[in-house]
Amino acid sequence: MRIQPIVYTTRMAEAVRWWSTALDVEPEHTSEVWTSFSIGGASLALHAVDELPAGTRVEMSLVSDAPLESVIDRMNEAGIVPVGGIVSQPFGRQVGYRDPDGSIVQINQHGS
């Protein structure tokens, strides 16, 4: 068994570009209604919908092996800007972003 979070999106093309940049990987499957990324033994799926479902949002947290500064540089190059800056946490550091549908996505670097 492996985990597969599903992110519902009303803008598939933008979401694919956003998540490809954030994860620094290309999708393993792409269609108009379903896109999936394979990441470290897990999978992240994007599911296209006409309207975002109510009450089903989950805050996504990604853990980066790369320094957050290089993640921020990669995202900035794609025109994706953080919500605030790097924040120190007891586990390390984090930076937040909004995906194309407005969901918050944390990118964490542990132990920093």
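Second entry:
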Amino acid sequence: MPTLLELQTKRNTLVTQGRAIHDLATKEKREMSADEVVNFDKYMDESDAVKTEIDKIVKDQARGKRLAEATAELEQRAGRQTESEDPDPNAEKTGVVKFPKRTRRGLCANLSTREIRLDLGKKMNSPETRAAFRGFLSSGAQAAELRNLQVDLDTAGGFLVTPQQYAAELIAIVDDLVFIRQRATVMTLTNATTLGVPTRDVDIADSDWTSELTTGNEDTALGFGKRELQPHPLAKRIRVSNKLLRAGALDAESIVRDRLAYKFGITQEKAFLLGNGAGQPLGVMTPTTNGSGISTARDIVTGSATNFTADGLINAKYFLKPQYWPTATWAFHRFAVQRIRQLKDTNGQYLWAPSGIGQASLAQGVPDTILELPFFVSEYMPSTFTTGLYVGVLGDFSFYWIVDALTMQLQRLVELYAVSNQTGYIARAEIDGAPVLEEPFVRLITS
């Protein structure tokens, strides 16, 4: 089996061969011959196939690294039952949970530190409550533990308040799962129930050239509005094997948190993209007419009722002001990227080449781009290509704001899944999100 280096070298050779054919025809100011077209397509198709192998090896290596890290962690935990090692052991003393948050600047992905502050004055954040919560997850709480967990909550339905550190750690995992969260402006509410976002509804005119003793024309057009971001309840039910919960090397807290993070992440991804804003986040792909979100004034047609055109993509990029380009990202469904990748000119040559609509980069850590801007692929982006439907978006997602509430409830279900030797958990979190300015976004819609 070829190594990663060998595959990268092979792809580099194939792209170089394809470029040589293309550059020769360009230099001689002629179209490529039939044989040249065949060879060019052959080299580029082989390059795509090699890239698929490269991506597979990179993912396999990432999984291997993840497994090795998990194995090392489990070895440290060996012999322990319900006692869990905190990802940030100092949080209970400092009141701050720290974790990496992915950000993007231009084409480079970096890591920065995000912090969530805890209210140490609340009983739910005490070491005793955290220990009781771990016992509750793994085997159910005893009377003394229940008294610690029943904090300012009607427990008739069996719901208990989780420690804020647990909620913060779950949010940290979801940050890595949902691509919009990695680029959005994310805030956490510990006390307030809503967050007001000031918006510029009407702008003033440009300044005036004037003399030394005058101040220019008075302008009274400037107007501000305010959008309210109010975390909405989000619930999810999961099941965990009782045998897994009893495993000595694993702690129930991490198992439940990781499963919930994945399930919450999927739901959030859908809402941040397609949510209608009624009892849920307002998505970037949802057109609005009430002054909030992104209106249809930010729509650009693709140039085709059933596909993209190169002109449509170019129009979308240049509809966005240049100051947003350094942090702008395309978002598409994989079927949409496939269609863009298959765009050809009148001679049947692919436009997605080093000198065309896209740029396929072989540099490690630098992703492929579309018109020099990176792109993300989500299964929850629209993928139906018929007249008048949205098929993509380009924008600076730092102007999408997300608000998390650290208040989280968890219910443990024992009898419901007893026949299958499983324990169920129902979690309720509170989240909201919305674009706070429409100018940094452009949506693509079929003609």
